[in-house]
Design brief:
Elements lengths: L2 H12 L8 E4 L3 H10 L8 E4 L2 H9 L15 E4 L3 E2 L5 E2 L6 H10 L2 E7 L12 E5 L4 H10 L3 E4 L10 E6 L6 H9 L4 E4 L1 E2 L6 E6 L2 E6 L3
Helix pairs in contact: 1-2
Bound molecules: ribulose-5-phosphate (5RP).
The site of ribulose-5-phosphate has 17 residues, from α2 and α4.
């Protein structure tokens, strides 16, 4: 099975967790694109969606799925999103697609975070995938210096602006042994909007696509 087929498989599996007659939170990325395409088949059974990126919002609308502003939604029972890396503790690195800030906001509102990945994303320790950090443009050099003090090798994502008009520094060379601590520390640097560690609000359920089928792993509390 190709990687894309695995993504499509896990995306279809996530439909089982969508709550009927409610608004569903939708992340971004290629796995989520499969989820949006699958969601179209049951669009009559949901109220609509909140999207974590402009690209996801466009795709939802093309399928005729109503897209709500997060501020107009009181409850979000489920949020479905992918990840660049995920651990057994359901801590994640996200933001490969640059949508980390809105993803973190929607995840914060959602009652349940369902992470959908192919098995290549499961890692023992986070950090091999360069950690994205969204930065206010005027703070780029300052944040870069602070990140280097923490042992990272930040690289400016070329020709790229986030949906919020900011920059991304992709941080190479980190071994993230304590994800909740580093997440908080990075967010404390003046000029950082968000970083791509999702550990303080981890996923609740990981659906992992393998050639043998989809495995479900629930977060231990
Ligand atoms: C975007 C993300 C995505 O969830 C992450 O990059 C995974 O993407 P894909 O499903 O394409 O592998 O965090 O900001």
């Amino acid at each position: 099975m190709s990687r894309d087929e695995l993504k499509a498989l896990v995306a279809r599996e996530a439909l089982k967790h969508v709550v009927e007659d409610a608004v569903v939170g939708v992340g971004s990325g290629s796995t989520v694109n499969h989820f949006i395409d699958a969601l179209a088949a049951i669009k009559g059974r949901i109220e609509g969606a909140v999207a974590a990126s402009e690209a996801s919002a466009e795709r939802l609308k093309k399928h005729g799925i109503r897209v709500f502003d997060l501020n107009s939604v009181n409850e979000l029972p489920v949020y479905v999103d992918g990840a660049d890396e995920v651990t057994e503790h359901l801590h994640m690195v996200k933001g490969g697609g640059g949508a980390l800030t809105r993803e973190k906001i929607v995840a914060a509102v959602a009652k349940q975070f369902v992470c959908i990945c192919d098995a290549s994303k499961l890692v023992g320790v986070l950090g091999k995938f360069p950690l994205p950090v969204e930065v206010i443009p005027m703070a780029r050099s300052h944040v870069g210096r602070e990140l280097r003090k923490l042992g990272a090798h930040p690289e400016l994502r070329e020709h790229y602006r986030t949906d919020n008009g900011n920059l991304i520094l992709d941080c190479h060379g980190l071994t993230i042994l304590d994800p909740p601590a580093l997440e908080a520390e990075l967010n404390n640097i003046a000029g950082v909007v968000t970083n791509g560690i999702f550990a303080r609000r981890p996923a609740d359920l990981l659906l992992l696509a393998t050639p043998e089928g989809v495995q479900a792993r629930r977060r231990k509390r």
